Amino acid sequence: MSTSLPEHSIDRLEDRLARLPLRERKKLKTRRAIQDHALRLFTEQGYDETTVEQIAAAAEISPSTFFRYFPTKEDVVVTDEYDPVMAELFRDQPPELSPIDALRAVFREILPLLFREDWETATTRMRLTAEVPALRARSWESMREGTHAVLKEITAERVGRPADDPEVDAFAWAVLGVMQATMYRWLDGMPLEDLPGLVDHNLEFLGRGCPL
After folding, report:
1. What is the predicted pLDDT for the residue at 2?
2. Which of 30, 47, 89, 179 is the most buried (most CB within 10 A)?
3. Domain tally for the chain?
4. How many CB atoms lie within 10 A of CB 127?
5. Which domain range does residue 188 map to?
């Protein structure tokens, strides 16, 4: 599967960032710089061995500034900016598409975006999350508070149900389960270039009711 990024995906992301107020763009730049330094230190010397003070020093900020951007040390690994992008792309899908087909279209845009713009960071974050128990625990909480909540909201809008509908909730968790299964297949040695295709296959499989 080609990993080239569609030009309209680049334009959409750049337009979205350009619409942010200057203050927000500066905050995003600082957040990314902190995360880059943190991931580098975690890779070089280990997660447990790296302190917030060391990350702050590398990023040339104070520890108190670090905590303004990331509530915990774990959050510097599990946090990204892709949930709002996913929501925007999902809402732009043709209304006749089912939630699964709309999500498949979204991931066909987001995953090449990761390959082109952010894959080294994303893979480092996934490996750390799989290997560090504290990160696995925080990732689950962050997923429930972030991606799961976004999935419920955008799915509920598409099907005309409330976000707290039990079936909408179950659907959102099922999608997250598909994503987790794909991540662990990659961590077990699946070739990187096969990941987008497996995500699409697993979502299609979910859409067919998981027949075995």
Report:
1. 35
2. 89
3. 1
4. 17
5. 7-207
